[in-house]
Structures are given as structure tokens and as C-alpha cells.
Amino acid sequence: MQDLPELLILDVGHGNCSILRDTKAVTVIDCGHDGSILIEALERLEVGAVDHVIISHADMDHIGGLELLLEVLPVHHVYLNADAKKIG
To answer: Which pTM does this prediction carry?
Structure first.
């Protein structure tokens, strides 16, 4: 972990995915379509666990990578927007 907060906005093509790190937590905001770029970024950052995942809405280009993230790393909390049951 570093001393100052850091926001990384990942290029996942169509969709969104960001990583917010500070001295206390790692937060992922949206997971992109398949999660592979997210996982690669987390590995490069040597992140061993994700404290929070925030999914803005359930379109596949925002929530699609969540499954892979949950398979690869421990995730402590997942927050889904109210439309999370929607299949995008």
C-alpha cells in the first residue's frame, strides 16, 4: 500500500473499470466486460485482496468481469446498484 490515494482508470474498451487505492483499502469500481485487464492490473500492483467492489449498474460491460475477479482474488464486500438484477 502507498501513502497517497491513487486512482487508476483502466482501458477496457467499451465499458468501465477503475481501481482506487489508499492506505486502508483497495476498491474496484466496475469490472469491465470480462475482467482480464482488471486482473492483470491488480497482479501488477501486487494486490492480494480487494476490500470493496462497487458495480454502478448491471450492463455486462460494467459487471461482466466480476465473476473472474471473485474467482481469482478474495473480495470482502460487493456493492450493487439497485438495477443489479438486470441482465445486460
So the answer is: 0.89
